[in-house]
Amino acid sequence: MSSSEPQKCCNCPEAHDDVIKFLEEIINKVYNYKETYFETHSIEQAINKNQDIESLVTQNLAIFNKHEKMALNANKACYNYLKGKLLNVYPTYSKEAEALLSKAIKLDPKLVDAWNELGECYCKIYDFVKAKSCFEGAMKEKKNKISLRNLSIILRQESNKSQEEKQKNVEQGLSFAKEAVQLDPQDGNSWAILGNAYLYYFFVVQQNPSVLKQCLSAYSQSEKYIVTRTSSDLHYNKAITFKYQEEFKLALETFHQSSLYDPTWDSPKVKESQLLKYLQEIQELVTSKGKLKPKKLQQIVQMIDSKQLGPYGGGSYTSSTGQKAKLIEVSYDSLKPGLNEEKVVLGKVICSVRNEDTVPFTYCSIDKTGSVIVTTVFNLANGKGVIIGDSVAIPEPYVTDVDFNYKENNFRFRLVRVETPVIMVVNSKKLGRNTRARVQISILSKFD
Fold first, then answer.
1. pLDDT band at residue 11, thresholds of 50, 70 and 90?
2. Distance of CA 337 to CAs 149, 332, 333, 397, 414, Å?
3. DSSP per residue over 2-19, as a string?
4. Phi, psi angle pair for 445, to nearest 5°
5. Mean pLDDT, to the nearest integer, of 242-260?
6. pTM of the full predicted structure?
């Protein structure tokens, strides 16, 4: 190009055939900046992310306002949608964004993207009724991944009249999340929402370890993409999964990673602190044997009697594989990591462990040899836990040897995980189904 030829400004819509296309390009650049922030910034700069985005939005709002008349003449609905989307980039609710997006839909009810943006705007103020209406409105026009994954989230947020209704919503939410992934297998956000849907499914519908594996598999797929790999939400939810898997070191590290990607979000720091405190208390109680005086501890040990095995004393047990098995009483120390088939352990409770989340119920017990073991019981109804002095027999115990260091803390103890209390024998009697409750979990993003 010769120097005599007129130069076209890249920030001027006259350089483009379509002003709407020009504004769309601005929006795409803003969202790309947000989603790939850590491609050009270090994690230490995470604290500046929201401020940097706000600065970029302010800069581009000036461009929008400058060319408003031209854009409105070109397409009123699209202009209102694009400006609303620009303001909706903030993690917090924008009243102006809501007004602009609502206007866009009134001008063009078939504008699917505007329906979805407005739905996400309502989610930020937890108005899930209006949000659901928006996503369903978008779906009437066209099946799309954004509506599907947001409907998956909202179904989990709805208040339910019964457990059956809740289960149905969670199952439907999982179905929507799967559909979103099928529509675009290369979308990291859809994979993350699928992981969350599996996590809910595990606790509400079917507590099968294979479901948790599917959950982590979905998160791993999501991490392949920069948009979600650096998401604090993804790492937070992954940490929750590790916590319930009792992969404590991974949980702590992942909560910490989540907090690094969004230092303004307190939940990851709080969860890391709570889990660390929980583990510290376990370690202290194991080391001190429940802080009981030697004489009291000796009295408890002497009271352990095989007769307290109740129905497991020389009787048969239907194992996890559905086979009838004859149980052999063994000591805590003789257990092996993993599932101990055809074995039963008996001990007396020496203390319970405080847990901010209330799930799982955690206690320490001692066996005849004086060995201490930690037991975590899932799905236990409120007020149905064991107390000091109770005799507890657990068939085919699943054992994990916890042994790791984290932030100058050393953790080393043996843990038995009980998925449901109905298999436990307490004071010679098997616990009834009234002791079982559904797990409530604290997961998902800032609004999920």
1. very low
2. 38, 11, 11, 9, 9
3. -TTSPP--TT-GGGSS-H
4. -70, -170
5. 96
6. 0.87
